[in-house]
Specification:
Helices cover 73% and strands 0% of the residues. The chain is an all-alpha fold. The chain has one domain: MetI-like (MetI-like fold). Helix 4 packs across helix 8, helix 4 packs across helix 13 and helix 8 runs antiparallel to helix 11. The chain is flat and about 70 Å long. Belongs to the binding-protein-dependent transport system permease family. It comes from Thermoanaerobacterium thermosaccharolyticum M0795.
Length: 290
């Protein structure tokens, strides 16, 4: 089929707009890369734009040479994996029953769930609860307080509502239990939304520094986001080990923030391409069906 002139013009204009959007989106990240690879004197002078000036890897060498950095990175990976699994487990157990109209008290429960989107218990009561449960200075103090996102639960609930009930009815006729239906039918059909929710929760745990800042006292348990925050804020003198003196840190302070952002962003950016095919499908189906 021959393309019309108007359609050809549309494709050209659309391509140009998309290129502009891509460049605008990528520029901040590319600018951070240029800053992190530039000499501090050029950064202070404001001479860095698209490309590094006075190319140097000193900032990365100082950060990567720190034992505490790698310890905090390991902690973050553990927190992210455990936190994501716990969040998916709890969110699924909440969203699936709420997707069933036959659930007694569904409206009341749903009202309480939605209520938490607008009101929380507050920082001090939450801290007192975490402390009373003995979760301070533990992995559970990091992953449990924010384990369930109401928004994510509502998206999952909407997705589950879009799965044909005939599938579950047929499984019930065959003698399958409720948990069997969930594990063997619902979850395999829910891969798109599960991958999307996993990404949302993983990014949230990975970037979380305030929760660990409140609930963790032992620096050996800090996640990388909190470790780098302490370096940038100068909150603790032990942020840099004795192998690197404070003058060295001062020399790279101009590029430290940029390098920190790059190092903490790379792992999450590496995960996204593997679940990209599920991302749009999961969000669209989960937010529009119902």
């Amino acid at each position: 089929m021959k393309e019309s002139k108007q359609y050809k013009i549309f494709k050209v204009v659309n391509t140009i707009i998309m290129i502009i959007v891509i460049l605008v989106t990528l520029y901040p990240f590319w600018y951070l890369v240029s800053l992190s690879l530039s000499s501090e004197k050029y950064v202070y002078a404001g001479l860095v734009s698209l490309f590094p000036r006075g190319f140097t890897l000193k900032t990365y060498q100082v950060l990567l040479a720190e034992k505490e950095f790698w310890t905090s990175y390991k902690n973050t990976i553990i927190y992210t994996i455990v936190g994501t699994l716990v969040s998916l487990f709890l969110s699924t157990l909440l969203a699936y029953p709420l997707s069933k109209k036959r659930l007694k008290g569904r409206g009341i429960i749903l009202g309480f769930v939605v209520f938490t989107m607008f009101f929380s218990g507050g920082l001090i009561p939450t801290y007192l609860l975490v402390n009373a449960l003995g979760m301070r200075n533990t992995i559970w103090g990091v992953v449990l307080p924010g384990a369930v996102s109401t928004f994510n639960v509502m998206v999952m609930k909407t997705f589950f509502e879009g799965i044909p009930t005939e599938l579950e009815e047929a499984a019930e006729v065959d003698g399958m239990s409720t948990y069997g239906i969930l594990l063997k039918i619902i979850l395999p059909l829910s891969k798109p939304i599960m991958y999307v929710m996993a990404l949302f929760y993983a990014v949230g745990v990975w970037n979380n520094w305030f929760g660990p800042f409140i609930y963790l006292d032992d620096s050996s348990k800090f996640p990388v986001a909190l470790y780098l925050r302490n370096i940038l804020a100068g909150a603790q003198q032990t942020a840099v080990s004795s192998t690197s003196d404070q003058s060295e840190l001062a020399q790279i302070s101009a590029t430290l923030k940029s390098a920190s952002v790059i190092l903490t962003s790379i792992p999450i950016m590496m995960v996204y391409p593997f679940i990209q095919k599920y991302f749009v499908q999961g969000v669209m189906i989960g937010s529009l069906k119902g």
